[in-house]
Amino acid sequence: MDLSNCQDWMSSLPEQLWDIPLTDLAIPGSHDAMSYCLDINSPLVRSESDFLRIMDGLFYCLTRPTIFKWSTTQVQCLA
After folding, report:
1. Where in the sequence is the domain holding 63, given as residue range(s)?
2. What is the mean pLDDT of the chain?
3. Nearest alpha carbon to residue 71 among 50, 51, 52
4. CA–CA separation, 46 vs 52, rounded Å?
5. Which pLDDT does position 47 carry in this prediction?
6. Which of 33, 41, 53, 79 is the most exposed place for a label (fewest CB within 10 A)?
7. Threshold 0.70, pTM exceeds
8. How many domains does the chain have?
9. What secondary structure, in 3-state letters, does the chain show?
């Protein structure tokens, strides 16, 4: 596979993968695309654990920088 131009990489899939549903393929990408817009004051989502929300309420100055650091893995816009 030619890796010099990856914008059309799916057209280069081996023939044995053509009929496999997309849901069964491992597709490269970012698990947290668009996380560049997070900031230290971004709210926790409802699905976060109760423990994390309690810790955030008690130790905001410690938990927020940690959550922010773990959540943000890209610093630039995709556009």
Report:
1. 9-71
2. 74
3. 52
4. 11
5. 58
6. 79
7. no
8. 1
9. CCCCCCCCHHHHCCHHHCCCCHHHCCCCCCCCCCHHHCCCCCCCCCCCCHHHHHHHHHCHHHHHHHHHHHHCCCCCCCC
